[in-house]
Amino acid sequence: MRAMPPACIFVSVIGFSDVERHALNTLFRLSRDGAVAYAPWEPLTAPGVPAPTAQADVLLIDGACAEAVMAQARALPAGPRLIWVGPGAPEQAWRVLDRPIRWAELLDDLDAVYAARQAGLDGLDLDVSAPMPLDVPEPTRRRALLVGLAPTESALLHQRLALRDITEVDEAGSTEAALDLMGRHAYVCGVFDLDDPHFDGWSLAQWFARRHPHALNVGLSQHAGPLAGWWRRRRVRRDTRRVGIHALLPKPTPVAELGEWLGRL
User: Which SUPFAM superfamilies match (predicted)?
Assistant: First the structure.
């Protein structure tokens, strides 16, 4: 088992579905490669084993579960920062997130907890917008990641990437698969369908930008095309800059524009 880095933020997790807990566990595992790790905090590991002397740094609570109601009834502790997911957040909630959970935003909040602790500002609402750098090894062979792409777009990307001598191409059709691949491989390029309703392509693209800051980050959206309204196109392009996407292309993907961007690899 890989040892935790010296800096670790412990998160007490209450509620959440099996799929969400799997995604959380994946994010916790991936964070072990960075300067700061995030790990689940368990009050008891076995019968008769005393609880850790230090309390959790963060309470992450699913507001839709019965445990959340019980947690409020027990009077939530004042020390840990409370991140509440869903409706019915109590007044002492430090952050409130909606579903689907934007995992990159959750990581930004955890980074803020660590930054506040380092600065001795545990009692203040410190906002950290710049993500903490992660050390990612350079790939021995150039590799690309495709997330949520339709068969025609996938075939086009395979063809155009091969022209750049990139034949190691992974494909993911779910949030969990994408997170797992990002944790196991280093990439020079990632392409994300931002319109697929089955997963949050925006958060995955943002996490890819954090994990692979030197890779080409491409987003595909029908709202980037000429048939989309002017305001919608403007908003989508603003969001791409916010999450770290370099190239926003419409669907169906224009071959010439795609080739121009891939030519930078």
Answer: CheY-like
